[in-house]
Amino acid sequence: MRLERKISETLIREALEARDMAYTPYSHFQVGAALLCPDGTIYRGCNVENAAYTPTNCAERTAFFKAVSEGRRKFSAIAIVGGPRGSSLTERDYCAPCGVCRQVMMEFCSPAEFVVILARSPEDYREYLLEELLPMGFGPGDLTEKNGL
User: Fold this and answer.
1) Which of 110, 44, 48, 46 is CA-nearest to residue 78?
2) What Rg, from alpha-carbon coordinates, does the chain have?
3) What is the pLDDT of residue 90?
4) Helices (H) and strands (E) in the chain, counts
5) What rounded mean pLDDT belongs to the chain?
6) What DSSP letter does each residue of 49-102 carry, written as one string?
7) Which sequence positions are flagged as catalytic?
8) Nearest CA-CA partner of 57 in 85, 21, 86
9) What is the DSSP string of 31-46?
């Protein structure tokens, strides 16, 4: 499943705007995410660092947690952009979600349907299905009665 180009570009622009809000006084690596609900609602997220490092929250999880805190549970796609503050994203590799963020996506999204967009700009991006980024992922379906749990 691939998104219409216009939808992908809109999500990327939203992620770029979210990136500007990142709080990264330690790594200076700013990430923005834009999470799409089936009805077209978009939730933005940015990474928020903490001096103790472990409480740091990624942009992707920030977007998911904002949406979930407002009662949303179904999602279609997410766009992710990231790189060092002040750098041109076009000079970097694509910014992929960490393993913890992929696991959060697995909690709420169908791996065969959820689209993950990794972008450097609205014109320069790649789309993946979650199952491509998290093969053999462990999710809610693994904790059902049919599996003896």
Assistant:
1) 44
2) 15
3) 78
4) 4, 5
5) 94
6) --TTSTT-B-HHHHHHHHHHHTT-----EEEEEEEETTS-GGGS---PPPHHHH
7) 60
8) 21
9) EEEEEEPTTS-EEEEE
How do the pLDDT tens digits run along the chain, 149 residues long?
688 999 999 999 999 999 999 999 999 999 999 999 999 999 999 999 999 999 999 999 999 999 999 999 999 999 999 999 988 887 778 999 999 999 999 999 999 999 999 999 999 999 999 999 999 999 998 887 666 65
Token representation of residue 143: 């904790």
Q: Which two tokens stand for residue 109?
A: 């999204």
Task: State how far the alpha carbon of 121 is from the alpha carbons of 10, 12, 91, 137, in Å.
Answer: 11, 7, 11, 29
DSSP, res 142: G
Identify the CA nearest to 124 among candidates 29, 44, 13. Answer: 13
- Backbone φ and ψ for 102, nearest 5 degrees, come out as -60, -40
